[in-house]
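[Q] Does anyone have a clean C-alpha cell version of this?
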Amino acid sequence: MMKTSMARATERPDWDAVAFCRSSGHRADVIEQLAQEPRSASEIADTTDKPRESVSNVIRDLKRHEPKLAECLTESRPHHRLYALTREGEAVAEHID
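[A] Here you go.
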C-alpha cells in the first residue's frame, strides 16, 4: 500500500488493531478501500465483490473497535452514508497487505 503522507508513515499503529484487521480478509479489504477515499458500504461491496451486508457489518465493527478505526461522515443521511478511516485507521491501513 502506498504511503500518502509523511505524518501517516511515521505514526505508530495500534498493533492489536493491525492484528484485528489482518485476521479477517473482509476487514482488510474494507480498510484498503477506505484508505483510498471515503466510500459507502454499497461502493465497497461492488468493488470487492463482497455482500453489502458483510461490508456493513465490518464497517460497524471498525466503528466500534477501540481505538475507533472508521467513522461515518454523513450521519444525518438515512441511506448511502459515506465512511472514512480515522487517524488510527489510517495508521493501521499502512500495515495491511
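[Q] Thanks! Anything notable?
[A] The radius of gyration is 12 Å.
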